[in-house]
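Listing 4. Sequential folding, example run.
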Amino acid sequence: MKNYYIICLGLILAIQHCVTSPILDDEQIDEHNKLYIEVLKDLREFALKTGDELREYVTRVQEEIEQNNEKYFANKRQEKLVKNYEKNSESNSDMLALYELSGDIIDFATDDFAAKDEEAKKFVEKYKLVEFSEKIREAVTKFYDHISEEFETYAHELDETQKHEQQKLFDWHKDFTGTNEIIGKFNEIVSFFELFKPTLVKE
């Protein structure tokens, strides 16, 4: 997931009524492209809603662990998501933090909570880590499915000339639907925004 965090989307947050526009080959982001704005809105809503659920869960588990003086073996990045969520809840949202929050969600959805000893097994069962991970994975899958639906709706509105002008989008969607892996699809979402020339941020 590390490679996701060095990309700043350089996105416009205001969602407004926009007309269909072709993707250009120059450096200009076509912020008036309808699909671009819809996918941006989907990403933000997914990250904040699912991130909030994950934040509440992790916070609750951490509080119970402290009260019970239990050993905590969770990934440190799960603790960081609380701060990432708080950054994105502010009116002046940091888009890089939004992207990192999405990465935290994907990580949790794909984490391996297989217990390696009896103590860990009891911990996993007590806090229902596997069940909650599956719930988050389902939210991720719905997010991906919705993006595909957005594309199909968008593509249906185009005439043949517009489809030709936006071949890059059709090629992207073919790649997006061509992988079933959760992380692979997230990579393709990154690729979608790269079509609009986002600003890259060095580590």
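-- end of first protein; second protein begins --
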Amino acid sequence: MRPNEAGEASSATEMRLDEWKRWAAECIDESSERLGELSREIWSHPELAFEEHQAHAALTSFFAGLPVSSSSAAWSVQRSYKLETAFRADWKWDWAPCSSTETNQATPPSPPPLRLGFLCEYDALPAIGHACGHNLIAEVGAAAALGLKGALESLRQNPAGLPRQAPAVKVTVLGTPAEEDGGGKIDLIKAGAFDNLDVVFMAHPSQEDAAYLPDIAEHDVTVKYYGKTSHAAAYPWEGLNALDAAVLAYNNLSLLRQQMKPTWRVHGIIKNGGVKPNIIPSYTELEFYLRAPSLRELSTLKEKAENCFKAAALATGCEVELHDGEADFYNVLPNKTLQKMYKENGKKLGIDFISDDSLNDLTGSTDFGNVSYVIPGIHSYFYIGSDALNHTEQYTTAAGHVIYPMESLETKQLLLRKMLSNATMSKEKKGSFQCQ
């Protein structure tokens, strides 16, 4: 092939890609009303980790109810897929390549389909609802899958622009519950939900547009101290003060911060500090999260923190039990190829991405990190028009603003208060700063 012919072929391919992207965008626009209703339903009924029954029903009904034509297959929907509130929706593109008569070539055997996965999250936080915008993650995951489906189906309407062989593609949408507490994706990995996928995509709402942010590894631990009750005024020397152990452990960790790396994080609460001032507490309980940029550093930080907990027990004469969380959240591995493609396409749409210097800033942790260790993927971030910080009531309002764009701020705040007052969300239940 001569140089000018190669350039013409490259230009034709780029034009074809641009055409497919246009079809994807038009398909999403056509479904915008249904997608908005889906997001509204999830935002208006916040549910805690592993309790997302209404969100599960809304999402599975959404895919099961999508219109079907004579040339388009229906989505295959599996409810309660591997986990009670997880789901899987599949759609396969299997359009045959051009005939051997047209190409003057023998028809080669069909390769296995390219298996693309789009991830949806939809759990909320205790007391403050969708303060991390998981309703929007569900919406954009569904939208991206519909856009890809539309782009593939456009091949039938534009035969002149077809490649000589149209590859088979299987589009999968995975509903992944419990990102805020427990790590539903980790359970799904163990159950084999990601085994038959080649690459996965998801996008998270934030204060900026970014193809990648350094989500870090996280370990949670519950610390229980057991002492001995006694009358705090009459004979305190007979008691072993479990609250003293808890306070000492908290202070030990505070002093440890002087020797911690700037990229390490330790934060926690005292969940049980006794029952009455004149009774020396015989039991206290703390809950702490430890974070570091990598699993190796997290292991080092974990050892140092455990020494702080054990030293407090030794100093007070109490017994201590350390209960690790079921699974650590891994740091997200960057995929430079997918990030480059995401930014190139995003810039064509007018997206202004943050500078690479900002990638040194720490964010939170997510169970997508565990996914990135077993399958290539991208966990991008998108700006929703608000500078409110995730895990605040202001961000809950902002996540609702995206789906109630025509209503006044007062109306949205009223909706938020009503939504929170009706939510069955107990403050006693754990809600962690996992995803942002």
